[in-house]
Amino acid sequence: MMKLTIVSAALLWSLAQPSLAQDAVKAPAAATATSSQTDESVEIESDRMEIKDAEKTSIFTGNVIAKRPDMTLNSDKLIVNYTDAKQPDGSSKNEVSNFDATGHVKIVTGKQKITGEWAKLNYKTNDLTVGGNVTVTQGETVLKGPKLEANLDTDKMVMTGGRVKGSFVPQ
């Protein structure tokens, strides 16, 4: 597994948070950056990383691990899409619009573990959608269904797409 160098991390997070480009380069030699959206550091590891600047996409493949203090996402592949955002001074900066994870997706938070075949995260709204044999485990309580829609800020979750099964254990 290859840990991103500070240059790769700085490049990725300068795409995600343009105001961080200068700060990330000054950071200690580690694959971490601070997201002004969440005020948390994020570290991404993968076997391979590709940046397609013309397509506004960064692609991480092979044993992807994306960590921040409150959450870890594992997958086979993670695609980060970004857009140009006009600034008040008329300049343009890159901002992350969404993350798409595929293959053996596992998301672990302090409260629960969520698994599925794919996941999409809207970076600006913190809306998460997980699909394909979704399992949510919280303590001994387990929920299963075809699709999960959640907001990571409000902790609201909805299972849709077909039959949902739950095994609820009081805590």
Account of the 3D structure:
The protein has one domain: Sandwich (lipopolysaccharide transport protein A fold). The protein is 10% helix and 61% strand. The protein contains two helices and twelve strands. It has helices at 6-16, 21-26; strands at 2-3, 33-35, 40-46, 48-52, 57-68, 71-86, 92-109, 113-122, 127-138, 141-151, 156-160, 165-167. The longest helix has 11 residues, at 6-16.
Task: Note the overall shape.
Answer: globular
CATH superfamily: Lipopolysaccharide (LPS) transport protein A like domain
- Provide the CATH architecture: Sandwich
CATH class: Mainly Beta
Low-confidence stretches: 1-40
CATH fold naming: lipopolysaccharide transport protein A fold
Radius of gyration: 17 Å
Q: Order of SSEs, N→C? A: EHHEEEEEEEEEEE
Short summary:
This protein is mainly beta. It contains 2 helices and 12 strands, in the order βααβββββββββββ. Strands 1, 2, 3, 4, 5, 6, 7, 8, 9, 10, 11 and 12 form a 12-stranded antiparallel sheet that branches.
Characteristic key phrases:
lipopolysaccharide transport protein A fold; 12-stranded antiparallel sheet; mainly beta; 61% strand; 10% helix; 171 residues
